[in-house]
From TrEMBL:
Organism in which the protein naturally occurs: Acrobeloides nanus
Keywords from the UniProt entry: Iron, Metal-binding, Monooxygenase, Oxidoreductase
UniProt xrefs under PANTHER family: CYTOCHROME P450 508A4-RELATED, CYTOCHROME P450 FAMILY
The protein, known as: Unspecific monooxygenase
Family designation: Belongs to the cytochrome P450 family.
One GO CC term on file: cytoplasm
Lineage: Eukaryota, Metazoa, Ecdysozoa, Nematoda, Chromadorea
Amino acid sequence: MGRTIIEDMIMVEVNRFMKTVQQDIENGVKEHNLIKIVNICVGSIINKMLFGYRFEGETEHEFYYLREILDNLQAHFANPLSFVMMLMENPSSVKNVPGFKQLYNGMLKDFQELKEFLDRQIAWHRKNFAVDGNPESATNFVQAFMMEMHRREQTGNVGDFTLDQLRNMCFDLWIAGQETTSSTTSFGILYLTTHPEAQKKLQDELDRLVGNERQVSLNDRPKLPFTNAVCNETQRLCNLIPQNLFHRTTKDVDINGYKIKKGTTIVPQISCVLYDDKVTPSNKNQTLEKENGFGVRPVLFKCCLERRIPVII
Ligand code: HEM
């Protein structure tokens, strides 16, 4: 699925966002729950990418059901005991220990419900779509995966293209893409409302360089330094994942004299870099605009996001 197709999916939701707010204003609504609108827009982009449909009209209730599971999961992960469980080789060994029991069972139930939703989606695609086409012609991730799986089955080399793998990938993309994007976007909106001068500068740049005859697009990106700077600064300040994912060293490493053996579990701390004044100096606004408008991006690249950057931009 190319960049333009995904960009189109995003723009559909941007339009929905603006239309919803506009309608609320016309209906005299005084307080707007923007986070709720951002959530369903982001959920729809990911669902459209994975399964080919948005949450709208009769499918909207599905989103609220899934959102509830996600909120429960988040609450579970916020529990410090979940961190202890993640460090264990076999977390199920504490499933009957008081304190862990409720957490373990709660997480299991949420994961199970989400997996059942994904299994239903995959089964529906298996029933309703031909799998013998060219993956390039697929309009969503599940279709493309199943076409490739079928092609490999014919050659006897299935590799990682199994239904289990498909379900797990959908699971990862659903979980990893939802809250991250919703919270960052909501944070960005809040940040801009508390910085009207930045908001004005941003609007001026868009008016001047894009105009109001058409919508802004990814192709405009290189010529919008302040807009890029705002996006990057939002990601930096938002510090969305202060407790990063676990990694394992693939060789012996020496960091400033600290020796870390190959095979050690490590948790790179992005926040140390994001909030380090040496890396992002306090006159950052000028720095951001000067550096081709990509400001803190080198910082994001240098820390543990490096290999994952394609999924977050
Ligand atoms: C503002 C939005 C996002 C932020 C801040 C963000 C941040 C992150 C971070 C910090 C990691 C861990 C990197 C590491 O282990 O070193 C990660 C991993 C990941 N992200 Fe995102 N992410 C965002 C959006 C998305 C989206 C939209 C998707 C997909 C639809 C996604 C999919 C993933 C996946 C699959 C991983 C795990 C990669 C792996 O370990 O193999 N993320 N993300």
